[in-house]
Specification:
heterodimer; A: alpha/beta; FAD/NAD(P)-binding domain; 7 domains; 5-stranded parallel β-sheet; 25 helices; B: mainly beta; Rieske Iron-sulfur Protein; 3-stranded antiparallel β-sheet; 10 strands
């Protein structure tokens, strides 16, 4: 029996703590007394997710890997915010900045890396930071709150994620990159250009071929001057040009160092009692910046620390992906053919922004670069790692797994039984198939959130979610169930169950619904009340009494609340048409009420911004007298019908698109829907009204009208699907009414048409609307019936005094 | 603690499950009075502890209101945010005197609890 050994770990980062975690799982690790020193004042967190914290997708708590309880439960002494400043190898002792000294039997160095800082003047100015730890993110968030312009230096993975995060936080962002294309180490020129184009469209300004000469500023950073004379103004400068291993401590202790701390396959440094893992090491001439090899190093190192003298670290092919919402990039292995023996196969769809390139050498896959559609990335990576001969798949390989495997010479689907337990599924958290299947079986897990909670698999970037779901079905079989989405925490019922019960059990009020389903809170909450109010309004038109107290403020006061507490007012302009009289009225109102901003919207109407709440009824009264009514720009209901000028004026116009747009708007205005609805009519396939990204779009052609459905602008752009071609305006109106009603009756509250159609399938919508003329007419009839109760201008009612309490503050009567 | 009491009139001035912001504030902060579905009355500083959202514009359920900006749920009696959020806005005393609502403003010099 050995006496307890002292293991000291320098560095509380991902590689060091992963090694400790692996060690604790091994028999040989139980007799260690473990002391950890960390320079940062935090517990161990997932550094690669910092960009998600910056972008606001996750909180700092979300990215904690090991909580203080974990350290306590495992008897680990954690010294936070106390970096080690010296290693005394002779006396086997480390000294920390606080003066604490701890003896060691074995030492693990996991000091990670430092940001690369080139020798440019101005680096010391306030307003300049790196993008490396929580403190840096705090600095960047502070700048985003108080200042406007940011410059990120470095167009690699880290720099791009920093730029996107700051953009998400509302800063105007420029990115300076030394090379002609972005991420040149991971992407070829074509993919790098696509990436730059997409990010340029999202509002990031690029300065490529830009050599930073100086950060300019007196009190604090004011901008960046480039070698070619260009000047980029900035309140915040983020340096993200790369990292270098942090080897100062090891060098001072006379360990062998080169670029990094030199380790052999057993993760030992030149001193056999001192190990090193992570970004601080150099192994066979290679240094590391990605997370996957760190997990492998941790495993080998832990085994060695536990006394297994056979464990070795073997580097594997690596992949990279970028964490920017909606921008999908994957890269692994070779970027291009190295010589004439290599073959490149490329697939490019400029319209959809998809680019795929694979590199073959001697019948084997050695590289893949994917842009826009990265679903097959992990499959390519597996083919590369297993060095499988893919000659038989050559013609189909670039089209992806589903297509390649559908042909001869390939298995039909992934055989999870045959997959080795060691296969890594989640790269972000280093979780293998064996970990996942083991947790599912041991703990009886049946849902994805449970698997995430217990194993962390797919809990970070989420790219491996599909595989984790497949493994759940594989391991739990019939017990696996999709996580049920209840309406809210007040009930165990979901949206569909409630909607069906309202009709089947003839439930007429929110109270009756809550009773029928044994609601947990008697009055419900802010999530279920607006939903129930809508469902009842839709089910019982003309009978249900709309509950204004269950509506979000915008729908209750019929204007959009702005961030300073003022409101915006958008009058309806039918099909985007207006008149001199209406424009006079809008101009007079803006002057009379000192309305600070008058803006033309993307939906072809005019937005009056900054109206004081108490002025709203009078503003509406004045607009009403010129014939202007509410544009419902605040409503989960019909917003706008955008049109082009069509055959009346345009030499390309095939039909009267403007007139048709007005008819559609007259039919649909005032309706309440699960979420907002936007329509458009284009007079010819040039599509100037952008009908193909609307909830319903009409494109006029010589032969009639193409009806398109389920499009969406916004963050997740989705192009419409073609529903049907019809030959008359009457048919367009009937299809539109029927479509509106189907959406109203069957979508979940707050579900736009695009996700609704994605959920039920376009084929279903076609069956209900195209294949079933009687059903279509019935839906259209129900829509018109509902509309007969809805088309009252809410502004006119309030201008006449309705709901006056909403718009005036309550005064004190007299001193009590 | 002593208060200056302000009479803001009868219950009917405030919609059930609703709120009104008052014409006067407390130490520079706006004040709102809430009426629950059970006709209970509460007064709080009309600022969400999160980002100062106007609580009076939120949805009132039971004895809570959900801020319209980010849906923090505030307990009206204590002014306290419900878990998982942490924070509080100041709750002010109210009393009913012959059918009219009186709101108590702590007199200057008194420190907030």
């Amino acid at each position: 029996m050995t006496t307890p050994r002292n293991l000291v770990v320098i560095g509380n980062g991902m590689a060091g703590m992963r090694t400790v975690d692996e060690l604790l799982k091994l028999d040989g690790g139980r007799d260690c007394r473990i002391t950890v020193f960390g320079a940062e004042p935090h517990v161990n967190y997932n550094r690669i997710m910092l960009s998600s914290v910056l972008a606001g997708d996750k909180s700092v708590d979300d990215i904690v890997i090991n909580s203080q309880e974990w350290y306590d439960a495992n008897g680990i002494c954690l010294n936070k915010g106390d970096p080690v400043i010296a290693i005394d190898r002779e006396n086997r002792l480390v000294t920390a900045a606080s003066g604490v000294q701890v003896p060691y039997d074995q030492l693990l160095i996991a000091t990670g890396s430092k940001p690369l800082a080139p020798p440019i003047p101005g680096l010391e100015l306030p307003g300049v930071c790196a993008f490396r730890d929580i403190a840096d993110v705090d600095k960047m968030l502070e700048a985003a709150r108080t200042r406007k312009r940011a410059v990120v230096i470095g167009g690699g993975l880290l720099g791009l994620e920093a730029a996107w995060g700051l953009k998400q936080r509302g800063m105007s962002v420029a990115l300076v990159h030394l090379m002609p294309t972005l991420m040149e180490r991971q992407l070829d020129v074509a993919a790098g250009q696509l990436l730059q184009r997409d990010l340029d469209r999202r509002g990031i300004a690029f300065f490529t071929d830009g050599q930073t000469e100086e950060i300019v500023g007196t009190e604090r950073a004011e901008g960046v001057r480039l070698a070619d004379g260009r000047f980029v103004p900035a309140d915040l400068v983020v340096l993200a040009i790369g990292i270098r291993p942090n080897i100062d401590l090891a060098r001072a202790a006379d360990l062998e160092v080169n670029r990094g701390i030199v380790v052999t396959d057993d993760m030992r440094t030149s001193d056999p009692d001192i190990f090193a893992v992570g970004e601080c090491v150099e192994h066979r001439g290679q240094v590391f910046g990605l997370v996957a090899p760190l997990w492998d190093q941790a495993k080998a190192c832990a085994a060695r620390l536990a006394g297994d003298e056979t464990a070795l670290f073997t580097p594997q092919a690596l992949s990279t992906s970028l964490k920017i919402t909606g921008v999908d990039v994957f890269s692994a292995g070779a970027l291009m053919a190295a010589d004439e023996g290599d073959d490149e196969i490329t697939l490019r769809d400029d319209g959809k922004g998809i680019y795929k390139k694979i590199v073959l050498r001697d019948g084997r896959l050695v590289g893949a670069v994917l842009y826009g559609d990265v679903a097959d990335g992990q499959w390519y990576l597996k083919l590369m790692r297993e060095r499988e001969d893919v000659s038989a798949l050559r013609e189909r390989l670039v089209f992806g797994r589903a297509f390649a495997e559908a042909g001869p010479g390939a298995p039909a689907a992934t055989d999870y039984a045959a997959m080795p337990d060691s296969e890594q599924i989640c790269g972000c958290n280093g979780v293998s198939k064996g970990n996942i299947v083991g947790a599912i079986r041991d703990k009886g897990l049946t849902t994805l959130p449970e698997v995430r909670a217990h194993t962390k698999a797919s809990a970070s970037c989420g790219q491996c979610t599909c595989v984790v779901e497949d493994l759940l079905v594989f391991a739990a079989g019939a017990d696996a169930r999709p996580a049920k989405k209840t309406l809210c925490d007040c009930t165990d019922a979901d949206h569909d169950e409630i909607r069906q019960a309202i009709l089947a059990q003839d439930l007429r009020t929110m109270e009756e619904v809550r009773t029928a389903f044994a609601w947990k809170k008697p009055e419900g909450c802010h999530k279920c009340r607006p939903a129930l109010n809508y469902y009842l309004l839709c089910a019982w038109p003309g009978e249900y009494h709309d509950d204004s107290r269950s509506r979000f403020v915008n729908e209750r006061v019929h204007a959009n609340i702005q961030k300073d507490g003022t409101y915006s007012v958008v009058p309806r302009m039918w099909g985007g048409l207006t008149t001199p009289a209406e424009l006079h009225a809008i101009a007079s109102v803006a002057e009379k009420f000192d309305i600070p901003t008058v803006k033309v919207t993307g939906g072809q109407r005019i937005d009056l911004l900054g109206v004081r709440k108490e002025d709203l009824p009078a503003v509406w009264g004045d607009l009403n007298s010129a014939g202007l009514v509410s544009g419902h720009a605040y409503a989960k209901g019909l917003r706008t019908v955008k049109t082009c000028v069509g055959s009346e004026w345009c030499r390309f116009g095939t039909q009267d698109s403007t007139g048709l747009g007005v008819k559609l708007e007259k039919m649909c205005w005032g309706s309440w829907t699960p979420h907002k609805v936007k329509l458009a009519v284009s007079g010819c396939p040039r599509n100037c009204a952008e009908a193909s990204i609307k909830d319903l779009g009409v494109i006029c052609v010589e032969a009639g009208y193409d009806i398109l459905v389920g499009g969406n602008g916004g963050v997740e752009v989705r192009v419409t699907d073609h529903l049907v071609r019809v030959s008359s305006e009457e048919e367009v109106l009937e299809y539109t009414g029927a479509y509106m009603q189907l959406y109203r009756e069957e979508a979940h509250y707050l579900e736009r048409t695009a996700p609704w159609i994605a959920r039920v399938g376009l084929d279903y919508v076609k069956r209900r609307l195209v294949d079933d003329p009687e059903g279509r007419a019935a839906l259209h009839g129900r829509f018109l019936h509902s509309q007969s109760f809805m088309q009252h201008d809410p502004w006119a009612e309030r201008a006449r005094g309705a709901d006056a309490h909403e718009f005036a503050r309550l005064p004190a009567l007299a001193e009590a | 603690m002593s208060y200056q009491w302000k009479n803001i009139g009868p219950l009917a001035n405030i919609p059930a499950q609703g709120a009104r912001r008052l014409c006067f504030g407390h130490q520079g902060h706006p004040v709102a009075v809430f009426r629950t579905g059970a006709d209970e009355i509460f007064a709080v500083v009309d600022e969400c502890p999160h980002r100062q959202g106007p609580l009076s514009e939120g949805i009132v359920s039971g004895r809570t209101v959900s801020c319209p900006l980010h849906n923090w749920v505030i307990d009206l009696a204590a002014g306290e945010a419900l878990a998982p959020d942490i924070g509080r806005t100041r709750a002010l005393p109210v009393r009913i005197v012959s059918g009219e609502i009186h709101v108590g403003l702590p007199l200057a010099g008194e420190r907030a609890a």
